[in-house]
Amino acid sequence: MKQEIRGGQEVTGVFLSEIAAPNLLRLMQASGLDYVIVDCEHGYFDYSQVAALAAVGNGIHFPVIVRIPSVARDCIQKYLDAGVDGLLVPMLETKEQARMLVRYGKYAPEGKRGISTMRPHSNYNPGSLQEYTSAANGRIMLFAQIETQKGVDNIGDIVSVPGLDGIFIGPNDLACDLGTMGDFSTPAMERCISTVIEESKKAGLPSGIITSKTELIKQCRCKGMTMFSCDSELGLLKKGILEMRKRSQG
Questions:
Q1: Residue-level pLDDT at 238
Q2: Per-residue confidence (pLDDT) for residue 250, from 0 to 100
Q3: What is the CA radius of gyration of the chain?
Q4: Over the chain, what is the mean pLDDT?
Q5: In this model, does residue 88 exceed pLDDT 70?
Q6: Degrees to nearest 5, angle at CA 216 with 210 and 221
Q7: What family is this protein classified in (predicted)?
C-alpha cells in the first residue's frame, strides 16, 4: 500500500469502530477494499484485539492502520510491535507533533523506536537487526489527520516532516472547529480541503478523507485526493439492514 499511495494510486478503505472479529478483514478484502483503519481513538479495542486483527491482516496481506489516541510512545510501541502496518494520529496540529510521531514510529537513524524484535512485527524471524529495522522503516506508514483550522494553518510545516506518508482530513471535527457543524459545503471548508490537498501535493504526499458522504468523496477525488475511508463496519451494517427491511416490506 505504501508504494501504491506514493505512486498516486487510489485506495479505498473502511473504519472498524467496534466489532473486533478478525475475519471481518477477510470479508473486506474479498469485497475489494484496500485497507482498514482500526479506531482506537473513539473505539474500545484492547491491545490483544488489535494484535489479533493485525495477525489476520498480515496473513492475508491486508493493511491494518490504527488510529491512535494521541502521539504517545507507549501505544505507538505496542501497536507497531503487534504488527500493524500503519498509524493515524487524530487532531494533529503542529510540526512538532508530526516529528514526535516519526520519532516514536521509526527505528534509528530516522527515529527512536524501541527495539524488541522477537515479536509479531518481525514474524519472529528478524534476521540481521540492521537489515530488519531498515525494512521495517520502509514498511510502516505514518499518517496525520487534520481536523482543525490550526492544523490547516500549519499544514505546510506538517507535510515538511520527513517520514510522514500521507494526510487525512477528518471533516466532522474540522467543520465543527470552523463553526459550521455538519456542513461540509461552506467556502471555509472548501478552502481548508483545497489547502490540505495542495500543500500535501507540493510535498509529494497523498491526501485523503474519512467520511461516509459519497458526494464529499467525489468532490475530494476531483480535487486530487487519492485515499478514502468511506464508512465503518457499523454504518455499512446498519445501511444493509435498513435496505433489507425496505426490500422485504415493499
A1: 96
A2: 67
A3: 18
A4: 96
A5: yes
A6: 85
A7: Belongs to the HpcH/HpaI aldolase family.
pTM of the model: 0.95
N- to C-terminal Cα separation, the chain:
42
> What are the cell numbers at 244?
433489507
Cα gap 228→168, rounded to integer Å: 9
Q: How many CB atoms lie under 10 A from the CB of residue 142?
A: 22
Residue 46: which pLDDT band, with cuts at 50, 70 and 90? very high
**Mean predicted confidence (pLDDT) in 89-110:** 98
CB burial string 1-38: b at 16+ within 10 A, e below: beebbeeeeebebbbbbeebebebbeebbeeebbbbbb
Q: What is the DSSP letter of 87?
A: E
Q: What DSSP element (H or E) covers 38?
A: strand 35-39
200 in Cβ contact with 164 (< 8 Å):
no
Sign of CA dihedral 153, 159, 165, 166: positive
Count of other CB atoms within 10 angstroms of residue 250: 5
Q: Note the pLDDT tens digit of each residue in 150-192.
A: 999 999 999 999 999 999 999 999 999 999 999 999 999 999 9
Closest Cα partner for 9 from 225, 230, 235? Answer: 225
Q: How far apart are CA 66 and CA 62, in angstroms?
A: 13
